[in-house]
Amino acid sequence: MIRRRRRHDDETVDVRVSGGVVRGVRERGLLAWRGIPYAAAPVGPLRFAAPVAARVWAGIRHAADFGPVAPQAIRNPLVHSPSAAIRADEDCLTVNVHAPVWDDEASTPLPVMVFLHGGGYSVGSSRDFSGQGEGFVRDGRIVYVSFNYRLGPLGYLDFTRYSTPERPFESNLGLRDQVALLRWVQENIDAFGGDPNNVTVFGASAGGNAVTTLMATPSARGLFARAIVQSPPPNAVYAPSLTARWAGEFVGILRGVVATRERRDVHRGPDTGTSARTPQELLGSAAPDDLVAACAILQVRTPDADPGIFCLAPVVDGALLPRHPMRAFRDGTAHRVPLIIGTNDREGAIFRGRVDILPRTPARIESLFARAPVGARASMRAAYPGLPARRPAADFGGDFGFWFPSTRVADFHSRYAPTWSYRFDVAPRLLEVLGLDATHGVEMFALFGRTDLALARLMTALGGTEAYAAAGERMRAMWVRFAQGVAPDGAWPRYGEHGRATLVIDADDRVAFDPRRERRRAWTRFLPALAG
Fold this sequence. Notes:
The chain is α/β, with parallel strands linked by helices. The chain contains 17 helices and 14 strands. A hairpin with a 2-residue loop joins β3 and β4 (about 30-35). α1 packs across α15 and α10 (about 375-385) runs antiparallel to α16.
């Protein structure tokens, strides 16, 4: 193995990667390289195209700062400082590497953890607190990798219905970015002291969906050795007939957004003829902000028009993704790597207001009941007494989107590869008072050791800090051991369909067998296609 690195001085470190030399920095006792291009800027003719190799640069590229985030509508002040200068740009395909300070005498490469950020495939970036992973690097001597991928309409809407030889549109662009990044890791991570044969991919929420989808993507085979999936919606992958309809709706919305902006722009000059542009011309020329604005409208419409469905998602395109991931898990064609998968106690409680995307309103719930077998409806109502009242509706929606599909992934995958299941139950006191409990995403601040951030401090304002932080430390230690190739010990039994052993991470961890059995049985009858 050749490590393509050389020390520059006590504060900076130069590494040669496939694009050229990058100069990292030594910060807080760790080494960091940020904003490294792993693919060419997806702009101009590369908008809506598969990623291609990054352009080679001359000289030394300074890699102290994160690259631009993907175009998106929402900037989270609870994750980023209000004064932080965060730039969004289509030229967003960059990777960050954080590593322990090298021991020049050491020859054993370190395990690698690649984190895929969440955010519903519409927001988020590798510069979020989870993208830095300092706790993982310090606790486990891990080489930690985070990266940006295309989001929203630029990454997760399928415009192939408009593809022509002159203006091709490719599918699954965000997923293609993720595969390209994993190939970059295979080619370059040894230069940072990492082992390309010991890569663990992990992600939460949409990042969890990305991991389960990568496990069903043939071109990702051999690019990672194991996987950790937190609170995924693994069933949120759709057929081309549905994604083509969304593409058509999006183009109609985009025409209105562009026309409205141009009418308001007093400096626009002569009429640019928005209504006369072909879809190809409109998609190719629209400003990123207009694309994002149009997508936000589509996202608001979808939960009522198509209850239980997320419009920003991978598509079973028959090429990059030849079959639905749930089918791949069931049939054993998913990559047979060791897997940890789990959800939080009450996933659906947080999805209110602006993020009201789950089937938790009476009309959406009724739509799902109308599609379910008649004989399954009574048992489902019995499993969620009081439905569609607020609390049972939140649990129904969360279990539909996250918990039940995750149990099916665990069931299927355990037939072919080592699998472990968990549930995170720790909720700081304020979340209990608000009726949110251990809801979607609550584990992230504790897992990454960032209970100092604003939202984490708010969550623990009424108490519960010690138990919450301690649960995160235990969880991180388990994730690190797994990434090091050490299987969970007997205190966390392997998952199988007969016992369904699940580690419940709480103030005191425990193992439950087939937790919420009656709910699981109700969903098995309610969603027979997903039940397999």
